[in-house]
């Protein structure tokens, strides 16, 4: 019964999410016609690359800390 509730809530969430995406299709066409969609995509890509770079930095830093802890023991 628990899985049924989770499945139902997930399904309803996906339907509402898809509905908002379909409603935004008109605004995407407007942005594309104005040529601003490329600026939006560029900003999203830059943010994504920044997050990836930050995660790699954190991974290297955590690895160094782990190695220092291992050496002290």
Query: SSE string, helix = H, strand = E?
Result: HHH
Structural class: mainly alpha
Give unreliable regions as ranges: none
Instruction: Give the DSSP E fraction (strand runs of 2 or more residues).
Output: under 5%
Overall pLDDT level: 78
Helix proportion range? over 70%
Distance between the termini: 49 Å
Number of helices: 3
Quaternary organization: single chain
Tell me the major beta sheet: none
Counted up, domains total 2
Estimate the global geometry from the Cα principal axes. Answer: flat
Number of strands: 0
Q: What is the radius of gyration? A: 22 Å
Task: Describe, in plain words, how this protein is organized in 3D.
The protein is mainly alpha-helical and 73 residues long. Helices cover 93% and strands 0% of the residues. The protein has two domains: 1-34; 38-73. It contains three helices and no strands. The model has no long low-confidence stretch (mean pLDDT 78).
Which characteristics define this entry?
3 helices, 73 residues, single chain, mainly alpha, 0% strand
Give a quick summary of the entry:
The chain has 73 residues and is mostly helical. The mean pLDDT is 78.
Describe the secondary-structure layout.
Layout: H1 2-23, H2 25-34, H3 37-72
């Amino acid at each position: 019964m628990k899985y049924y509730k989770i499945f139902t809530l997930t399904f309803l969430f996906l339907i509402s999410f898809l509905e908002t995406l379909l409603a935004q299709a008109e605004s995407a066409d407007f942005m594309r016609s104005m040529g601003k969609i490329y600026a939006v995509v560029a900003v999203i890509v830059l943010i994504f690359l920044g997050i990836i770079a930050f995660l790699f930095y954190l991974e290297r830093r955590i690895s160094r800390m782990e190695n220092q802890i291992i050496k002290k023991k």
